[in-house]
């Protein structure tokens, strides 16, 4: 779709091309190609019927092409054309596969285009006809994305996802040393991973993660002093307000588990945020190591205090020499960089025994303690 708009924009020599959907009294820009920013247009921008030119195009009072809006008496007094410096435009209605009005396909430019001819209008209409079947699918996608945006936004405004706390054990001493705050969402039709993936698809990952961390930090005073709190954050969130949120808390009791750590090497702002967290006393963990992880080089770059071995390596470790070898290797890596390993997903006595035999000191999983929304239950064995 974007490529097709690029063809249109270049054919007409315009600055920006767009496809918009009519929703009530507004035109919503759904796809954009070119320099939309100079017209204050981005994907998702809305243009009201009262202020835009599109209503006049739809009614037939304006033609599909106007080479110079400032000179044409039909548009010379248009506030929007003057304010946004729209000197020329081309626009035609788009209908969906059922023949119902969908919206408008258009181009705009900052300079007059006196070379525009009627055949250019026919080219525009031809592209609108090509889009006829595509816009139905686009509308479905738009509706789905809009619903996701509303669901995630509503959750953020309500203070973020609910939390469950899962204990982390010192396997040698048999006692709880920390709890991990895990997000729990109201709609069980999406898993936690799917909720965060959906938030990412509509650009709300950072806001959702920060809301979850903020709620977890609010529980920190209720956690016994000898127990730490682990929170999860993507590399992007580290440099988007997390440091400021943690400042002023009991930061030395916090462990930040970093997801998507493969992105750190190419993001200097993330590296700076990591340094600031460490200066606050926060410890860092590389999360999900072993689950599609980019390589040991990333562990060397991050040098985390904790390596969290993914449950895909833990589960079945008692029956798989390869898993045991990888676990032993991670222990050696952790020792070399001054850290420790937490085995995630311990579910059987055999997995627990083998995990300890590989030299892994810390663990969590259903065998040791299930996630619970009652913080006191998660911390109950702290003194054992």
From TrEMBL:
UniProt xrefs under SUPFAM superfamilies: EAL domain-like, GAF domain-like
Domain EAL: from-to ranges: 145-384
Entries under PROSITE patterns matching the protein: EAL (PS50883)
SMART domains named among the record's database cross-references: EAL
Gene Ontology terms, MF aspect: cyclic-guanylate-specific phosphodiesterase activity
PANTHER family in the record: CYCLIC DI-GMP PHOSPHODIESTERASE PDEF, SIGNALING PROTEIN
The name this protein goes by in its record: EAL domain-containing protein
Lineage: Bacteria, Bacillati, Actinomycetota, Actinomycetes, Frankiales
